[in-house]
Fold this protein.
Amino acid sequence: SIPLLIGAAFDLYFRVPILFLLLAAVVVVPWELILLLATGAGPLGRAHESFLEGQLLTLPDFFLITPLVSALHVHAVRELGEGGRPRLFSTFRRSLPTLPVVALATGVTWLGVTIGLVALLVPGIILLARWAVVSQSAALDGGSWTDTIRRSTDLTSDHRSHAFWTLVAGWAVLGVPWYFLWKAVGHDTTTVASFVGGTAAQVLIRSFEALVAAILYFDLKGRASVEPQGLAPATVTVNDRPTGWYVDPSRPARMRYWSGDGSWSKHTARTPKAMRSEWLEQGTAEPQVPEVAKDEHTGHSLDPGVYTDEGRPPGWYVDPEKPWRMRYWRTGEHEGWSKETTKTPRKALDEWRDLRWRR
């Protein structure tokens, strides 16, 4: 329930309060200093700015500040959930590589929400509910920015009201007191005390909002994981050919996708050089890589976690630690992971990430 999610956010805050405050402060404080130099006003000194000025100042916030704070917090929450104790620098190191996608996805969706709110209000509310966990999905699940928007839409599909009111509640806990304080003591002249106090309040508010959104993301993932298995996409085979990517015998430099409905998809992808060499060495008309596992949970042998080493068939697998690379598993006398690696085809990588995310 929403009260339990908010309570969980407070519990996490009290467990590692300094960490969450630092994760927000290292982003918010420099941003507030930049705004102070640009406008001459601190957080409490911008109470009387015009609507247009407020929106212009908010634009960089959409594409940089909010995404980075969100990414840092969701990485920290994941590590806490796995039993670890996150550290400031390690959390930054894991978050920064995903920042471009997080920034673009968050910025685009917030622009859409803002336009919807300004135009007719209701469209903005609907979009906010659909895209409630875009930042968090982009930070943890990978893929392109459009993939993250689609995943957020999927996660919230049956829980739009729950997602929307959780975000509202997370904002209301500290945002409502801040709003009345902002209106009551807003001024035209910024002092050192008002700047420090206002910035400290902004750090606390942004940190708590990001923490609530991170917990909401894991809550929605948990709800999705207990859906009936019949709703999960199953691997379909025709004539014992599993769905997946195959080397085209007529054009070994290209790969084709077998859709499982008795036909080849029009989609093609470049065959990685190592895969092509392996296929040519085998001298077979029936392509062997990449194979697809008959596993109803992931449906794809590109994920090495589908098999144990004892029952793992030979073939190319995505390296979970470096998904942009693939490794080859050999069987027989030289059983084990080969030293050979190859670049993961883009379409195969996107498919692996989607299946990994559903898992």
User: Anything to note?
Assistant: The longest helix spans residues 192-225. The longest strand covers residues 322-330. Residues 227-238, 284-300 have pLDDT under 50 and may be disordered.
